[in-house]
Write a structure and sequence with these properties.
Elements (H helix, E strand, L loop, with lengths): L3 H4 L2 H24 L4 H5 L10 H20 L13 H17 L12 E4 L7 E4 H26 L6 H5 L3
Antiparallel strand pairs: 1-2
Length: about 170
Amino acid sequence: MTNYMYTTSVPVFKQLLNSLSNILTKAERLCIEKKIEPKALLDARLFPDMFPLFRQVQIATDFATSVSARLAEVDVPTNENNEQTFSELQERITRALSFLESLSSKQFEGSESHEIVLRPGTPKEKKLIGHTYLANYGLPQFFFHVTTAYAILRHNGLDVGKGDFMGIY
């Protein structure tokens, strides 16, 4: 039997990271076809106080890997957050997908009741039970950043729709 915590996390993260990768490929092609400087899209934002596209992708990959790692009780992968090109963002997504692929359903056994501590030792420390951490924190954060990356590119003229966002499931 497959573990519920695994099936509601890792496959979902993989599905949408693959979709995000495909959307970024389309965005890079748009830059070539329309002679748009890639930096214009990579630095695009929905509003001045929001993160730009490249940072949305970085954060989405971080949530996919960190949430999964904490639930599986393995070390959280770290990144330097220095991606400046579509190619570098694609490499980051590939690393995240490889990490997710390395996890097994068995590693998630009992994770619904694990205590997850966010920002330990700081005034913002928060303790959550595994199921709450995934359903009420991790997945919504991940979806927000993937959706925002999609919306930035759609707003800037990329011809994508719901099918592109959803990908293959």
